[in-house]
Amino acid sequence: MLYRLLSCVTRKATASAFYRLPALIMKPQVYFVLGGPGAGKGTQCAKIVEKYGYTHLSAGDLLRAERGRPGSEFGELIENYIRDGKIVPVEITISLLQRAMEETMKSNEENNKFLIDGFPRNEDNLQGWNRTMDGKADVKFVLFFDCCNEVCIDRCMERGKSSGRSDDNRESLLKRIQTYVQSTKPIIELYEKQGKVHTIDASKTVDDVFAHVQKIFDKEGYKA
User: Fold this and answer.
1) Phi, psi of 140 (to 5 degrees)
2) pTM for the full predicted model
3) pLDDT tens profile 35-81
4) N- or C-end of the chain: fewer Cβ atoms within 10 A?
5) Helices 149-163 & 170-179, crossing angle to 10 degrees?
6) Omega into 120 within 30° of 0, i.e. cis?
């Protein structure tokens, strides 16, 4: 069953109009935003969007939206993966990211700077991205929000009081953190070897963290 679903989404992604993007003058400029659950990725991305005008794409939000979309053939599959703290198959995640980037650039191809939050989360994600997006998007760097596990858990538990997210509970959080340590950290380390990681102490206040973020973007010259 899973194989048939993944084969289906791969065919749909291949047929997507997104593959017309190489014909555009502007390529998507991508900034991966990584860190553990509760590290503040979404909060900081919102501030980057406000300051620099980039487009924020949260892999997790896209998956949750697809999970709740009436008639989605992948809704139940996505729900099971998220609830168990596992990583959703890359074919599904990339197809959603592709669609979101295409729709953003359709009206104005100069809106081509994307913060991709929570992706790639493992080696399979990275290989899938490289295989699908080679020549179609440029990864500028990884913004890594580094935060200790206990702080992350406390933040998510507090968020869970009002978020309504099924994975904002201690059991799911412990699974998500284990997945992050085992699967995502090696991806960050790989990009570090390429000199493409900016690490930020995410345990500080929102304003202090963003002050560091601004220094990185301003120094690198990545304006809107």
Assistant:
1) -80, -50
2) 0.80
3) 998 899 999 999 999 999 999 999 888 998 999 889 888 888 998 88
4) N
5) 130
6) yes
The structure tokens listed for 186 are 């090696």
DSSP element (H, E) containing 177: helix 170-179
The length of the chain is 224
Residue type, 66: E
Cβ atoms of 32 and 187 within 8 Å: the answer is: no
DSSP string, 76-145: HHHHHHHHTTPPPPHHHHHHHHHHHHHHHHHH-TT--EEEEET---SHHHHHHHHHHHTTT-EEEEEEEE
C-alpha–C-alpha distance, residues 126 and 120, integer Å:
5
Distance CA 94, CA 96 (A): 5
The residue whose two tokens read 């991305």 is 45
